[in-house]
Amino acid sequence: MFHAVTTIALACVALGWLLRHRLGHHVACMGAACLMDYGTLIALELSRGPAIAKALSAPPPLLSFHVAVSVAALLCYPALIVLGIGSVTKKPHWLSVHRRTGRAFLLVRLANYVTSWMI
Ligand code: HEM
User: Fold this and answer.
1) Which of 94, 99, 107, 110 most suits a substitution to test ligand 1, by most atoms within 8 Å of the C-beta?
2) Is 66's C-beta closer than 6 angstroms to any atom of ligand 1?
3) What is the DSSP string of the chain?
4) In this structure, which of 3, 32, 43, 96 has its CB flanked by the most CB atoms within 10 Å?
5) Is the dihedral of CA 73, 78, 79, 84 positive or negative?
6) Per-residue pLDDT at 19 exceeds 70
7) How much is the pLDDT for 39?
């Protein structure tokens, strides 16, 4: 179930990237992915008890890496929303920061997905 949702979320991210020149579609796809990713975190926490606490208590290296890229991806969402809104409103120079952060986000989100199948 969690893998199905995270696969759909990654597909939304890929579509959001492909549609990055169409602002409305881009925001809709990335927004949907954001909701699914935060929803998965909440559902994991509720269904598997304190998943975050468990993950942080002496985890093996691959699990540590998975937690690190997952947290990085989740932190990128609010940053990209703020940078994206800023870049289309009053701070055009924010767009280059949004683009660079967006590319870093693509890397960590992909790493999150790949390692989610390995842990
Ligand atoms: C929800 C989180 C978001 C994510 C994960 C995200 C991610 C990305 C990524 C990966 C790129 C492409 C970077 C590149 O390869 O150059 C991009 C470009 C862009 N994003 Fe976002 N974005 C988000 C939200 C937003 C929002 C809220 C806005 C504006 C309201 C926005 C506006 C743009 C624009 C204008 C571009 C450049 C498109 C172009 O090159 O013509 N993004 N974003």
Assistant:
1) 99
2) no
3) -HHHHHHHHHHHHHHHHHTTTSHHHHHHHHHHHHHHHHHHHHHHHHHSSSHHHHHHSS--HHHHHHHHHHHHHHHHHHHHHHHHHHHHTT-TTHHHHHHHHHHHHHHHHHHHHHHHTT-
4) 32
5) positive
6) yes
7) 96
Which residue carries 């870049």 as its tokens? 87
CA of 117 to the centre of ligand 1 (A): 27
* Residue pLDDT, tens place only, 50-89: 666 766 665 788 999 999 999 999 999 999 999 999 999 9
Domain that holds residue 85: 2-118
The count of structural domains within the chain is 1
- pLDDT attached to residue 51: 67
Q: Model-level pTM?
A: 0.91
Q: What is residue 17's predicted lDDT score, i.e. its pLDDT? A: 98
Q: Is any atom of ligand 1 closer than 6 Å to the C-beta of 17?
A: yes
Q: In this structure, what token pair is assigned to residue 21?
A: 């020149």
| CB of 81 closer than 6 angstroms to any ligand 1 atom | yes
